[in-house]
């Protein structure tokens, strides 16, 4: 095999975290579909890092459930089964209403401002018709909640569950219902601002049920994607 071509060595070299974040974002934005093959050589070439590093990143993503490693075949974006899809929502329903309830007791004014700002960005992306960005921002809204708890374990869990949810939505979405209902994020912030933990928990539970209700767990769709696009 030839050495790295000069035009490739001139490309910026990404850190492991950056590569991992880009793959996660591509999943969050529905640009990498479930089942997409992640070719090590190709990823190494595009990102300007060694195959060893790519293998490390893929191993970490596999650990998080976002990637499936199949011996002798390689790495693929995970393709959650209907059962796993349901499990993702069951888990989120167990965790996130309680997360919202507790946040109502501790939330600060700057945190409320940050949540409002985030929802404004969602709204702007929606108005501009940037559906990929809307989907990513909707997911990140939920990660922000975990971040505001300052609980590393909770944050890690949400960071895993959010892209998994996006994979599930990609696979099981009914057409034209792409992301979190926008006004429900506003209602959640209103409840937090009113320090009403019960209401925040109830809205979060309802919100997760609404997202789940937009899915149909019988007929997964498939799509082909260009992995180069995630590093462009
Ligand atoms: Zn949401």
From TrEMBL:
InterPro entries: GntR_C, TF_FadR/GntR_C, Tscrpt_reg_HTH_GntR, WH-like_DNA-bd_sf, WH_DNA-bd_sf. CDD domains: WHTH_GntR. Signal peptide: none annotated. GO terms for molecular function: DNA binding; DNA-binding transcription factor activity. It comes from Pandoraea thiooxydans. SMART domains: FCD, HTH_GNTR. It holds the Pfam family GntR. Residues 13-80 form the HTH gntR-type domain. The keyword Signal does not apply. Keywords: DNA-binding, Transcription, Transcription regulation. This is GntR family transcriptional regulator.
């Amino acid at each position: 095999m030839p050495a790295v071509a000069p035009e490739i060595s001139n490309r910026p070299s990404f850190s492991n975290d950056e590569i991992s974040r880009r793959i996660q974002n591509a999943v969050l934005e529905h640009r990498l579909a479930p089942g997409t093959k992640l070719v090590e050589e190709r990823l190494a070439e595009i990102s300007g890092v060694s195959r060893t590093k790519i293998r490390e990143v893929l191993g970490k993503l596999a650990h998080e459930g976002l990637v499936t490693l199949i011996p002798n075949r390689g790495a693929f974006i995970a393709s959650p089964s209907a059962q796993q899809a349901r499990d993702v929502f069951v888990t989120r329903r167990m965790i996130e209403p309680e997360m919202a309830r507790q946040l109502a007791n501790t939330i600060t004014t700057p945190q409320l401002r940050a949540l409002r700002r985030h929802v404004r960005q969602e709204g702007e992306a929606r108005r501009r018709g940037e559906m990929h960005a809307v989907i990513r921002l909707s997911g990140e809204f939920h990660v922000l909640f975990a971040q505001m708890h300052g609980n590393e374990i909770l944050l890690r869990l949400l960071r895993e569950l959010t892209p998994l949810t996006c994979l599930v939505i990609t696979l099981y979405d009914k057409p034209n219902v792409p992301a979190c209902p926008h006004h429900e994020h506003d209602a959640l912030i209103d409840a937090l601002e009113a320090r009403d933990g019960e209401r925040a928990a109830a809205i979060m539970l309802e919100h997760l049920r609404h997202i789940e209700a937009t899915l149909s767990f019988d007929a997964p769709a498939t799509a082909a994607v260009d992995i180069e696009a995630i590093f462009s």
